[in-house]
Amino acid sequence: MKLNCSPCLRALPLLCCLSLFSPPALPELAAQADADKAIKAYCLDFNWAPTHRRGRPFAKPGQWADANPAEHVAWYEAMGANVIQTFAVSTNGYAWYKDGFIPEQPGLKHDFLPEVVKLGHAKGMKVFGYFCAASNPRWAELHPEQSYGSPSTYHIPYTDDYLEYLSKSIYDAVKKTGIDGFMVDWLWMPRRQSTDGKWIESEKALYEQLMGEPFPGEDKLTRAQDLAYSRKAIERCWQAIKKAAKSANPECIIWLTVNKMHHPHVVNSKMYREVDWLMNEAGSVEEIQKARAMVGEHTRLITCLATWNGMDASTVVPQAIEEGVGLYGFTTPLTKSGIVKLAPIFEKQVTELSGDKKNIAMLARAYQGKSEYAQWQDGEFVEPENPPPFRLTFQRRGRGLQDTAHIDYDADRTVITIRTPYGRGTGYLEKTGDAWPEAFVIQLQKRPGQAPKPGETTLFGISDGETGAILPLDESGSAQIGGVDTKAKLERGVHLRFALKDNTETVPLAADRNDERIRITLPGALLQNLSDEISFQWGNK
Length: 541
Known about the structure:
This protein is an alpha/beta fold. The chain is 24% helix and 22% strand. It has 13 helices and 23 strands. The strands form four sheets. The chain has an eight-stranded mixed beta sheet with strand order 1-12-15-23-17-18-19-20, with no helix packed on it. It is globular.
């Protein structure tokens, strides 16, 4: 029986090596994933303008003001999430509930946050709000003397006035909306971009207040002084946040997200020991594990999947589940409703997707206790009878278009059709079952029905780090096989940097090309002689 299954790929950072971690199959972890203690969270992100352009600004006040609470809760339910992370006050400085201390988003159609809480709780989901500590354009407009302008980055010093404002915002939202807790984002020091590093007077006064000495001047401020001041300022802000939240509701869960877990301003801090949930927004589970010694016994740890951090969902998701780390993802919706359509994502193999769409596909399967190979059939994910015994991933291309693939698998022959927008790339095959398929066929297409141009894809190479083969794609003939120069096998660059040592021989790899695709056939004999982790490249001389 032939199955169109979906081993999952995730763009990998440039210059990465083959993963040494072999994650267990997700079905084996389904019981853990479905346990009540598992954090399965997602966020339709109202913070940013609905655009893909680089350097995008915060969303304008009133963006997504028509968002329907019932539609949003249904979306999270379809994902299989048990934690909804939405917004109390988003980064534009306006609230997502009515009649509060902070003015509501202009034109807010529904009393959004309280209604999401009511509907989410009825379905057994926790609902979290959101506050951004170091950025608030509305505060900057009201108090320009206490802000470094209003850029879409950290711009607020934690003065007494601001901490009072933030504390009242938090207390009001927790008390009025019924949220289970809230995420605290960007609890960092201001970047002072608008003043070219010069300190505004209100922050100089804060320095003197916290340090017990006058501000020495930008040119005389030592690194030790700056570090001590920064840690005091962040700790004081944290204590204000905690007091406001726990005064409103002692059971309120404070969820801190940081993108640099071991930054000197926060490492080994009291905040880490006291916070309820701590997330590494940069996504590395390894970095989260290193932080365990710094957190409290009650603190729950979470990893994040997002396009910006470049994490490989097919590796991170099972790894996080196995190690008891919660899962979270977010994406900015591009529609007026604030909803991302799920059906077109669920219907595809995970390998056919990239970016946030791939993260959504992978998280939804995990949240519903399914494997990365599960297929969307009649409104639900269904496991294949014979999942493929390998995982496929690709080397990430920064912010550019990514390589993706469709896989047709059976035990005798596997066809991997790769869509490669630039005609060159690197892929990784990791054996997760007992044996490789009898044969692999790899087809390269620039877009559906169109092969890469002859001059841009002329070589194909495959290696396990010890043995490798190189096949010319512009002429017929046998491939060269031999030992591999491991220092050269994965160098960054346009051209194929895949070097064989002198003791080579020929093997019967087959390749042919036409206007629609380049096809490479890898015989089972070659695969069976390679190790459990294989890299392959395609490009030019």
